[in-house]
Amino acid sequence: QVQVVESGGGLVQAGGSLRLSCAASGRTFSIDNMGWFRQAPGKEREFVAITWWTGDKKTYYADSVKGQFTISRDNAEKIVYLQMNRLKSEDTAIYFCRLVDSKGDNYWGQGTQVTVSS
Fold first, then answer.
1. Which of 3, 43, 47, 52 is 20 to 30 Å apart from 99, CA to CA?
2. Do strands 10-13 and 112-117 pair parallel, antiparallel, or not at all (unpaired)?
């Protein structure tokens, strides 16, 4: 079984920064991609950013976070990070990490709360 665990959430003032981490562990597996999603109160879960471990190792961002958030990865440690800068109240949400392995199976973390106070 593959485990995905997020960390780094918390309470921050508007304009501040946070860095989220997502660590993957478990049985032998190959990562195809890992990404971040978020769910604000009363809203659907939405895509934030994604990075591929294979091919061109591209990254993609939701338009709402381009230039504000940066996704990066540590290939050896199987960790993906989300650096969030200039945080706004609308960034308040539970942030979830998703891992997709080479077989196409999806694994989700339990989420980490990010609260931005204005």
1. 43
2. parallel
Is 21 within 8 Å of 42 (Cβ atoms)? Answer: no
Residue 6's pLDDT band, with cuts at 50, 70 and 90, is very high
33-71 confidence digits (pLDDT tens): 999 999 999 999 999 999 999 888 899 999 999 999 999
Cα–Cα distance measured from residue 57 to residue 50, given in angstroms and rounded to the nearest whole number = 10
49 vs 35: CA distance, rounded Å = 6
Nearest to 50 by CA among 67, 31, 77, 72: 72
**Side-chain-side CA neighbours of residue 24 (13 Å):** 30
Report the alpha-carbon distance of residue 107 to residue 101 in Å, rounded. Answer: 8
**Is the distance from CB of 49 to CB of 33 less than 8 angstroms?**
no
